[in-house]
Structures are given as C-alpha cells and as structure tokens.
Design brief:
Distance between the termini: 21 Å
Low-confidence stretches: 1-10
Strand content: under 5%
Radius of gyration: 19 Å
Number of domains: 1
Number of helices: 10
Amino acid sequence: MEVLAVLGGVEWGIPFYLMGLYGAAYFIRQPKEGAKQGIINWSPLETVSVAIAIYFVSQLIGGLLVYIYPLLRGWSTLQINAWFESNVYGQFFLVLSVEALAMLLLWQFLKRRGASFKTIGLRKSKWLRDVGYVLLGFGVYFVLYVALMALVQKLIPIDVNQRQQIGFSGARGGSLIFVFMSLVLLPPIAEELLIRGFLYSGLKKGLPTIWAALGTSALFAMAHLQAGTGARLLWVAAIDTFVLSLVLIFLREKTGSLHAPIGLHMLKNSLAFLSLFVFRIV
C-alpha cells in the first residue's frame, strides 16, 4: 500500500474517492434497530464503498501518524522523503500504522453492525488440511499465472520486467527482520481480512459466487497497478494479484476459513522476500 497512491492520480481515482466518501458516510451511520446479529447486513455497494473508505483513510491517517516523528525532529524535506522512501524503519512503521489502522477500522465497522471477524471468515479450521490446501493452492496459482501471462503477452504485449515499487532498498542484516514483517506478516493478514474476508463476503451476499470472486479479484488487482505514484501502470502485478486472489477465494470456499488464504499469501510473499532481499536473484 502506497500513501502516494492516495494523494496522486486524482482524476483517475475520482469514482473511487466518491465511493470512499459514500463508504465513510455509511461507516458512521447508526445501524438500523433490530438488525440481526452475527450476519452480513449490508449490501454489496455498501461493502465496496466501506472497503475503499477503510483503504483510503488508513493510508492517509497512517501516513500522517508516521509523519509526526520527523516533524518533531525538525527534519528537512529531503530527510523526510528519505525516511519514507529508503529508510527501513520509517517504511516499517508506515506499513505497521497503515495495516493496524485498517484492521482497527474494519473491526469497529463490524462491531457497530453486530458482526465480528468470525462473520467474515476468521473461523477455526484444521491446520493440517490448511497446509495441504496452501501447497495445492500455490501450484494452481503458479500454473494459472504462467498460462494467463502467456495469453496476455500474445494479445497485448506488456512489460514483464517492470518492477513493483516495494521500497526497502539497501536493507541488510538485522534490518531484514523489519522487511520480513512488513512484507510477509502484516499485509497477508490485513489484506485477507479486508479483501477475501470483508469485501468478498459482502459481495457474495448479493451476487453469484463467480461474480463476487471476479469483482473482489479485480479490485484487488487495481490496488496493485501503482496508479497515482507517477510510475507506469504495473500490469504484470495486477495480473499476478488477480490470479492469486481467485485462488485465495477458492481456498476460502473449500476450507470455510481465512487461515489457508492467509497461509498461501504469506508463502507467496515469503518467496518474493527471499528472492529480493536474501538471495537477491531478482
């Protein structure tokens, strides 16, 4: 998640900002009296709008919270930019604050609607079965991704060598622990609860499962295009995350829980972490 993606690309993101405003209004609206507890009692439109609102608000507020530290230290603009863009600890605290705030907002919304994380899929499951599904899911994801990329390359050639802006350049030694937490631990938990948990569950309530899965995956892919950062749209990452999301939803449906999707998401991010920061083969 990039704070710059919220601040830039205003024209491109107008529909999303408007939906985010609607979601924020719905978020603070008092729930209807007598609403059933422990179920999803909001519509697909409200689901998408609230998810977008949580995304934007957590990005903005989380970024501002981390911004306080360099301001109190009296740093220059160049020092502040370096803190956000290349300092491992600055980037870690940014990720931590954004993801923690997103989960806090999601929990608060669910609580106000008489629901919980269990309502959106965070249920007990059989860990050994989940491990098997994680390994199976990774194989399915890899095959589907390679096949879809080959097809896209024939129809619409894209730059497969374009790199995603994930930061943490120059991380070495002990600082890799913070990179690991920022990439492998925090995003899979937060994103699975918000996307395959809240967003997919809300869409599935009012839509056929296939359309809920496609809609969820399309929104997840769009969030990885890097729109608003000043860089070219990162289509290779969008295709990657679209396919991954479909497989994650499949795991959620097969297991009835978010544990297997979280596990697969962590596995994929772990391989990326090892490739980029440990073995440096990419």
